[in-house]
Amino acid sequence: MRVIAFKVWSDFAHFRKHYTTSSPLTHSIPPPSALRGLVGAMLGFSRKEYYEILRLEKASFGVRIISPIKKVRIPLNYIDTKDGAWVTRPPKGRLHTQVRVEFLKDPVYEIFVHHQHNDLMDILSEMLRNHKTIFTPYLGITECIANFEFLWDVDVYPISGMLEVLSAFRIRDLKEFKLEDGVGIVKERVPVFIDSNRIRQKAEEVVFNPRGKPIIARLERAFTYPNGKGQSFTFLN
Fold it and tell me: Given this model, what pLDDT does residue 47 score?
C-alpha cells in the first residue's frame, strides 16, 4: 500500500467538538473529517468536490502526535452580521459577543495519507515536496494557518504482533496493549466523515498518547513505519 506522510504545524489549532456550544472545545488531534478538508485544500478541490474525491471508500487518513498536546482558552469577540446588524449599529453590548474558545497551542502532527488512485497520490507527493498548495492550509479554522513539510512516500506493508504504535488508532482495532511507566492514554470520539450537507455520517472512538509517545499494542490492522524497527502506524478510517 502506497502511503504519503507529511508534517504539519501551526501556532494554534481548533477542531471543534460538535457537541459543544457556547464554550467551544477542541479535539486533541485533527479528525479524519478535518484531514479530508486539509488535503482537499492543498490539492485545490472545492468544498463540493472533496467530499466525493476523498470519501471513505477512496481515501484513508492517520495522524501521529509529534508535540505534546497543550490547550489554552482564548476569548474571541464575535460580531453579529445577521440582518444587517453591523450596519444599524445597535446599542453597546448587542453587536459583539465574547466567547472563550479552547485552542491547541503549538500543535505538530505527522499525517498519513492513502488514496486508491495513484495519479492523485503523485500530484500530492509532488506538491508536498515542492512546498506548494492551491488553497491556504489551516488547522481547523481559517485563523490557524498551517505550515507543512514532506516526510516520505513509500509502500508500506501489514505487520502484526505487539508493536510500538506511533499513531492514534481506533479502539475497535485494539486487541491487546501494555502500559509502561509514564505513558498514559486518552480516548476521544472524533468525526470520520462529514457529507456535503455538513451532516456527520461516521465517527470513531480513537486512542492516543497526548505526549506523543508510542503505545505498545497489538492491533487488528497496522502497517510498518519506514525505517522503524518494530514501529507501526494505522489509519483512523
Answer: 82
Spatial CA neighbour of 51 closest among 67, 33, 66, 68 = 33
- Domain, as residue range, for 199: 2-233
Long-range contacts of 161-164 (CB under 8 A, 24+ apart): 161/218, 162/216, 162/217, 162/218, 163/216, 163/217, 163/218, 163/219, 163/222, 163/230, 163/231, 163/232, 164/214, 164/215, 164/216, 164/228, 164/230, 164/231, 164/232
230: alpha, beta or left, given left = phi > 0 and alpha = psi -120 to 50? left
6 with 148: CB under 8 angstroms?
A: yes
CATH for 19: 3.30.70.2660
pLDDT number for residue 226: 94
Q: Is 154 helix (H, G, I), strand (E, B) or coil?
A: strand
pTM equals 0.91
pLDDT digits (tens, 9 = 90+) for 193-212: 888 777 778 899 999 999 99
**Which residues of the chain fall short of a pLDDT of 50?**
none
**How high is the pLDDT of residue 135?**
96
Which residues, in sequence order, are CB contacts of 28 under 8 Å at separation 6+? 65, 69, 71, 104, 186, 188, 208, 210
The enclosing H or E element of 208 equals: strand 200-208
Q: Is 209 helix (H, G, I), strand (E, B) or coil?
A: coil
Q: How many CB atoms within 10 Å of residue 26?
A: 24
**Tally of structural domains, the chain:** 1
- The predicted pLDDT at position 231 comes to 95
